[in-house]
Amino acid sequence: MKIAIDIRNIGKKRTGDEVVFFNLVKQFSVLDKTNDYVLLTDRDPEKDAGLAQEIARLELGANFKVVHLAEEGANKMFWNAVSLPLYLRKEPADILLVQYITPFFIPRKTQIITIIHDVSFKVFPKLVGKVDLFFMNILIPMSLKRADKIIGVSKFTANEILKYYKVDEKKVDWIHNAVSDIFFKEHSQEELEVVRQKYSLPQKFILYIGTLQPRKNLPALIEAYIKIPNEKRKDLKLVLAGGKGRNFDAKIDEYVTSYGLEKDVILPGFIDEMDKPQIFRLAHVFCFPSLYEGFGIPILEAMTLGVPTLASDIPSHAEITEGATMLFKTDDPADLSEKLNRVATDENLRKDIARKELARAQKFSWQKTAEKMLEICKKMTDATPH
Length: 386
Known about the structure:
The protein is of the alpha/beta class. It has helices at 16-31, 49-58, 76-90, 120-123, 130-146, 155-164, 189-198, 218-226, 230-233, 251-258, 276-282, 297-304, 315-321, 333-345, 347-361, 366-382, and strands spanning 2-6, 36-41, 64-68, 95-99, 111-116, 149-152, 172-174, 205-209, 237-241, 265-269, 285-288, 309-312, 326-328. The chain has 2 domains: 2-178 and 366-382, Rossmann fold (3-Layer(aba) Sandwich); 181-361, Rossmann fold (3-Layer(aba) Sandwich).
């Protein structure tokens, strides 16, 4: 079996999208020494030091090959319509693994698997940029129709795909995300302090990490933070970590300014993947107030390290945590502020949450996820007439 994988997001600071493909490829390399893999990218590893470093971290086996397609700067449409189809006509693959958008004009003998991280653009269209929404509404239905298999990153996401799109239920399956192996490495106090200094982090803080988009509900977190009693909040800061990027929620800056929180709310920007475990270990509380997620990898990252966590009570979070973390009602601001105060100040509660989180986190691993994905690939090729 020959499996081609679109790895363009690796090394591009695309948070969850990048994490999933990086770890799947890394596990495929550990688990599978038989099948052939072609990793397709739009950058030349010999010229792009960042990509070369990420590929080195993958520790690829001899049955893996990295192929640079298209010229530097070629847009996504050119990649999907020209570069990738031309390559696969010359070098056919049994399976092509992509996310969201399937390329055009791919020969039918190449079966396509697309991973869908969430369908937030269908649920909260007003929170997505108009240009992005336009293309998603056109391209996603086309992609799901062409895909031979559609994979959600949770049971919830698989059900959402079936809810919002007319696709054959037999085409839809799911896998669970997990956390990178860097989260299982111990760090000395000196290493933690180096990261603290690198991002100018305070001594004690509530952490959010992820994109800073409107659906992440961060203004509500800021409001909950300021409702923590002054005597308990005086040494406790709020860190909102993530790149501003496209679709940045402008209300974050507005709230910080209007409430006079310039010294209390810290925005350190994008966090390098290798620094994430240290950031979580430094945090007093992790809060993930998102209105909609397909999975929510940062919650699992916090759970893996036993960081007391508070998250919104959306279905995907309930699926992942199964009662291990504290959840708040997204439609009740008072519930968020009351529970944030408790998780930040009640030591017995914090210890209980940490204990439950560590036990629950053990149920997830990229090895299990990669094994399930390989099983899906095998079933697809076995069912294809030769």
